Amino acid sequence: MNNFPEGKYLSTVKIGPKGQIVIPKEVREMFSLGTGDSLVLMADKTQGIALQPFSYVENFWNAVNKLNGEDKK
């Protein structure tokens, strides 16, 4: 469908009447996302909107805490 390099995807999505969007199947497969998975929505008025799997943000947060000496292990 698209001619992007492997690991890249571009698409449009529409916002439904309840403010919901559908994440395209190709993207869900790319990131192994399934029903019930959590995503973190980040928004910046000048830079836009980004979605990240919760596991990415959780790993990032744990790494920051470890660097700051806040690792609880």
Protein model, in words:
- The chain is of the alpha+beta class and 73 residues long.
- The chain folds into two domains: 1-35, no CATH class; 38-73, no CATH class.
- The chain contains two helices and two strands.
- The chain has a two-stranded antiparallel ribbon with strand order 1-2.
- The longest helix is centred in the last third of the chain and has 14 residues, at 54-67.
- The protein is extended and about 45 Å long.
Question: What attributes characterize this protein structure?
Answer:
extended, two-stranded antiparallel ribbon, alpha+beta
Question: What are the SSEs and their pairings?
Answer:
Elements: H1 25-30, E1 39-44, E2 48-53, H2 54-67
Antiparallel strand pairs: 1-2
Helix content, binned percent: 25-40%
The count of helical stretches stands at 2
Classification by helices and strands: alpha+beta
What is the terminal separation in angstroms? 47 Å
Major sheet strand order: 1-2
Overall mean confidence score, pLDDT: 87
Number of structurally distinct domains: 2
> Radius of gyration from the CA trace?
16 Å
The tally of beta strands, per DSSP, is 2
Which geometry do the CA atoms define? Answer: extended
Largest sheet: 2 strands, antiparallel
- Can you tell me the residue ranges where pLDDT is under 50 for at least 5 consecutive residues? none
| Estimated share of beta-strand residues | 15-25%
What order do the SSEs take from the amino end to the carboxyl end, as H and E?
HEEH
